[in-house]
From TrEMBL:
It comes from the Bacteria. Residues 334-343 have a biased composition (Acidic residues). Residues 314-333 have a biased composition (Basic and acidic residues). This is GSCFA domain-containing protein. Residues 41-300 form the GSCFA domain. Residues 305-343 are annotated as: Disordered.
Length: 343
């Protein structure tokens, strides 16, 4: 038979050999080098899915960078990340956070003052907001410094792309993590505008934050992934499922373009593992939220392409169980996006 471009392709390139039979989530991971190494110091940001993987990484013994903690009674994952920034649904929001921390960007709508508190529009769900303008300024500066400290300390950064839909300020384009008026603040059509980021915009924002972070931490390893969790609600005229498919398609395409532009950036297929054709049901009864077992399947696939952690997570089974229980609790916790489903 004549040779052609498919003749030398490995089995994973063929549906009949890699999907119809011999399906394995691990085979979807095609990184050329270990994703995590024994001495990795991991920082992460992104959608609420990004928070649920952290306890599994810690249970495996990897060092997760933490430079800031949130107060008790946290409902929105602020304590789940390396600093208390909570869920970051879009690359633009993360890029702007770095620019704020470095003094490049000063949002004009940077606080919402009420009779009892001064609320941070970029962390509207903090359980104990500032009680005065002076306290707000101190807390915000401290938070931004902790973000920079985390970037400087880590050597691996995992970003989970969550949404293309967002709400921004008409004054300067500042991206809010939640639509004003859902968790805090008041919605104003003159000041708040809906956007649905395009693939090219997402790519530009990803490359922007990569360059910013590597200027702070040279040699930083970047891992991109797409959250498999569906949208709570859409502000478009589409059915929420159609909007979700569009959203994930744009994010996946953008991640691919970003990796092509920066070949040393790793794409990890969490979305594909969770939504793939395996027999497992990876979603809870709401058909949106991933089960804890599904999160573990995704993390196990990452660990299969990583070096064992230097501290070794297997030895402390009680700690592993406690951290995996924390992941279960995080999966059940609210995220800002859920506030879109309120009347």
């Amino acid at each position: 038979m004549a040779k052609h471009p498919y003749s030398d392709q490995p089995d994973r390139a063929f549906w009949s050999r890699a999907v119809a039979s011999n399906w394995s989530p691990v085979d979807l991971v095609t990184a050329n080098e270990p994703i995590l190494r024994a001495d990795s110091r991991v920082m992460s940001a992104g959608s609420c899915f990004a928070a649920t993987i952290v306890p599994h990484l810690e249970a495996a013994g990897y060092h997760y960078v933490r430079t800031e903690t949130a107060e008790a009674n946290d409902r929105f994952h602020y304590e789940s990340y390396s600093a208390a920034y909570g869920n970051i649904y879009t690359p633009r929001q993360w890029l702007q956070l770095i620019d704020r921390a470095e003094g490049r960007f000063h949002p004009r709508e940077d606080r919402w003052a009420t009779a009892d508190a001064v609320i941070d529009p970029f962390r509207p769900g903090l359980p104990y907001p500032a009680e005065s303008e002076e306290e707000f300024d101190l807390l915000t500066r401290s938070h931004l410094d902790r973000v920079l400290a985390a970037i400087g300390e880590c050597n691996v950064f995992i970003f989970t792309l969550g949404l293309t839909e967002s709400w921004v300020s008409t004054l300067d384009g500042a991206v809010f993590p939640a639509c004003p008026g859902t968790i805090a603040g008041a919605f104003d059509r003159e000041r708040h505008r809906f956007v649905n980021f395009t693939a090219s915009e997402v790519v530009a924002d990803i490359l922007g934050f990569i360059d910013r972070m590597r200027a702070i931490r040279p040699g930083l390893k970047i891992v991109l992934t797409v959250s498999p969790v569906g949208m709570v609600a859409t502000a478009t005229a589409e059915h929420v499922y159609t909007a979700t498919v569009y959203n994930k398609s744009v994010l996946r395409a953008a991640a691919g373009e970003a990796v092509a532009a920066r070949p040393d950036v790793v794409y990890f297929p969490s979305y594909e593992i969770a939504t793939g054709p395996g027999v497992e049901n990876h979603f809870a009864d709401d058909r949106r939220t991933m089960t804890v077992d599904a999160v573990k399947t995704v993390v196990d696939a990452m660990l299969s392409s990583s070096e064992p952690a230097a501290s070794g997570g297997e030895g402390d089974r009680n700690r592993r169980r406690a951290l995996e229980q924390l992941s279960r609790e995080l999966a059940e916790r609210e995220c800002e996006e859920l506030m879109n489903d309120t009347k």
